[in-house]
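Page header: ASSEMBLY MODEL / three components / 1168 residues total.
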Amino acid sequence: MDLSAINPILFFASLMVAATPIILAGIGELVVERAGVLNLGVEGMMILGAVCGFIVAVNTGSAWLGFLGAALGGALLALLFGVLTQCLLSNQVATGLALTLFGLGLSALMGQGYIGIKGPVFADWHIPILGDIPVLGPIMFQQDPMVYIALLIVLGTGLFLNRTRAGLILRAVGENHDAAHQLGYKVIRVRLMALAFGGACAGLGGAYLSLVRVPQWTEGMTAGAGWIALAIVVFAGWKPWRLLLGAYLFGGVTVLQLNLQAAGVAIPVEYLSMSPYLATIVVLVIMSAGRAPGSLGRIFHASH
Amino acid sequence: MSALLKIDGLTKAYPAVIANNNISFDIQQGEIHALLGENGAGKSTLVKAIYGLVKPDTGIMHLNDAPFAPAEPRVARSAGVAMVFQHFSLFDALSVAENIALGMERPPPQHKIAQQVRVVSNRYGLPLDPDRIVGDLSAGERQRVEIIRCLLQDPKLLIMDEPTSVLTPQEVGILFKTLRKLSQEGTAILYISHKLEEIRELCETATILRGGEVVATCDPRTTSAGEMAEMMVGRVLHVPERAAGDVGPVVLSLKNMSAPAPNAFGTALSDITFDVKAGEILGIGGVAGNGQDELVAALSGEVTVPAGMIQLKHDDIGRLGVNARRKMGLLAAPEERMGHAAAPDMSLTENALMTGLARKRLSHRGFLRWPAARAFAKDVIQAFDVRTPGPANMARSLSGGNLQKFVIGREILQAPDVFVVNQPTWGVDASAAAAIRQALLDLTAKGAAVVCISQDLDELMEISDRFCALNGGQLSEPVAAQGLSVEQIGLMLGGAQQMDDAHV
Amino acid sequence: MITLEKRPEPSQFWVFATPLLSVLLTMVVGGMLFAALGQNPFVAMRTIFLDPLFSEFSWFYRPQLFIKGAPLVLIAIGLSFGFRAGVWNIGAEGQYIIGAICGAAVGLAFYPMEARWLIFPLMVLAGALGGWAWAMIPGILRTRFGTNEILVSLMLVYVAEQLLASMALGPLRNPDGMGFPGSRNLSQYPSAANLELIQESAMHWGVVAAFIAVIFAYVALARHLFGFHVRLAGQAPRAANFAGVNPNRLILICLGLSGTLAGLAGMFEVSGPAGQISIDFNVGYGFTAIIVAFLGRLHPIGILLAAGLMALTYIGGEIAQSNLGLPGAAIQLLQGMLLFFLLAVDVLTNYRITWQRGRA
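Prediction written out in full:
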């Protein structure tokens, strides 16, 4: 075993890459939950995004169009969830599970002809000047564009929720949907929009796996990333900034165990592979604080 | 001068009931207009129609001579109609300023709202800090948030739905001053209540609804409360009568009972001490959110407390759970019927089973005795005149009053030694309320002790032998109820610190 | 304008009609999907839903229903109690794996001793205990720390899968297997094998256990205090508290029960139909059982029927895969769709749809 083989600069740089899909899926779910909806189908939306993104990218030759397709696919699946839970008043937990099972099946079917193919290259951006800073440059400013986009989405979401009127309305809907309805806000419309945003983000997160991180399509390739994103939303106490912290923590554990595997540590590979999941459980136990939105998971039916 | 709001032939029917039938009346500018009626008389449907939450089937309204048919509250608000709800539509986790911003059409930036809140609250004598989180406010303060939210929009018509049900008499005084000031400034107020004395004190005109129709319009200042009650109910009410019983030995005794707050927005109980004797009713008054739910939970056994704090007859029961206490003769009926005292999606038989298990022997070695449970449910239905097709019906299919009769009857038929009840007649129509109060009196006549927690002071004065008040989780010394003045009660309820707010 | 109006009582008609309606809708939409894939939808539907029962090879497929159905019934029955009580164990797949590992480990520990009276019962016990213990992790974390049991139980599926792989490659690997991953074949070790009880029927002990579980669950729900408390806690948690139900105990019991049954299912599978611990031992019964539980309306008899239907789609799916070249994922999709449609049409049970003209 040779731990010195782990290059700290490479370690942190790949940590940011490992965290990105979780950040994307997590920020989407955070907005959804702040609107009072518990969508447990993140895994399903992610995997659909992964396959949609891959198919579009391979056929158009453009990774960017792939991401667009992934966002659309995720959003459409999320709207299906929205129609069921918001219009047909189905149980959110059960529907979320159904969404995951459905997404896994649909993606496997769609991806039939795409196994083993290589997707188009998604080049890194070497940001001038900033990218040349020693140590920090390679870690922060020589990444692929989606890393920055994910961070911008988090930034934008934080500002949106806390600084804008629309964000206030969204929080109000999630906090007490009956009161929001009484004030004349369109609870269902707000929630459907939040869900679509959440689905699009989850789709982007999935496509990041199939287009950048892996990068190819395999069945079930999200391997629980969607569930980890859900856990990190709880860890973050429904606050965008803490979501970043959680995602980097998770990214760190993931990259560390991969590095240890590569370094040939005398721990069986399987035990290293389970460490991100165990770490997620530990984090959930420690950070069960934070107050959930008041109407989270409750069924809204506007009665007279 | 033409009326501010003209309502003409307004009708709204639901599949099971006609909520409003051809309702017509006018509200003048600057008038304080009472809308009076029992539960189910159609008051809330009517105001929801004015506020744009319900669309009437037929009928027209005019606001300042312009046709007025708000499709949603937004439209009503921009036309100058504002409403303070009975159950405040507030957001616990948001600040006062954010709550107010949500209620405005075109709100100014957050810091300006804070400033405006301070101005308005000083002007109308409604103190309020815009940066506080609403979940931490008292019921009275929460109501102020609602009122200030409405006032910031300069309404022409302010609708108030049962605004005093959560206030102390002193707070009611403050509110009335505010409302009179508004009315002088030309704002009309539609004041919904079933409290007759209040209406006589405040309002200039009263429209009385019964069964969805306008049955009378009167000047409450010259009409007696009795006359209005008769118009509202349609018949003479049965006043509970009290059989003079003997007061026996102490059966329930609390010594310095304390319990931590169950959650972030709950109330901690501290040093609660009282005795209740067999054959008497101890009335506990207080504004909602001062520890009523917590006290009931500690007495029923849903929350246990350390040994030595609660004694039932000769036993220390503080550490016992709900069913152990039931077996020993302490029964309780919590305030919230749907989902706490009863399970809405279960049949009445199953709801009877819920609390009757221990004392009525409805199970044998863990196996349920359905026939016995059904028979028990039938007994309750019969003895308490619960209007339902039968015990197989879901609890949620019953009206509020009927379900309350069922819940109270279920406990009373188990012959408790001590019965703790919270808000026995909340949201119950007058005749059912009278029946429930009579049942409580009958229970004491048979030698049981009753602890009755209520926010309805008239009710407490009517049935209690002794009275005390909960305030911030503390209980005042119980005193004989007879001869207590409203002023004294108000002081007990409010505590001295709330009197500061009275300096307008 | 269509509006929903809550019924005062759930509709008895729709309680029974919605599962059938959702199966029908799944067939229609699934057929359209297969048509889009270039298949004859009628042939595809016949292959999946009818051929296992009525084709010339049905003598082979019919017993398979037991093999596929038994674990689904066992797991779904366990889940149904938790789902009724609002305890969301969705990690049955993990408990199933751990039950199999524990059961197999006990059996292999005795190899090659011959003592069926001792070894097989011990394996059953170990399987049950393993599943129970795995489910206790989310249970204890939930009751002690308020940790969300959905996420924890699900994370533990991935952990269990890694554990399974390490067992198949490490401690439980067949020493005579020439280095191939996977344990000895338990079904060829008479003392540990989950044998067919009747020749050619595929009736093994797991099937018996499944039927027993259905009967017990039925009695518990209809006649026993425990079932009453479970239903009460799910429908009105505060009322349950008022009725004297200890919520934490109920959570632990519900999770323990579903873990135990999932563990048993895993143990019966590994010692019978699967035969050995291998990397790809688990095929998703733990997740499909969630669909089964809902499709069966969380009712024991319903679960029995729903498990039969799901087993049918598994077998039919395999036939369709080999005969029509239909991708395996299509069946997974069909199952997910079924749950979707059920949840969608379920609205009819508790709400009445009314048409109001004109106003928005």
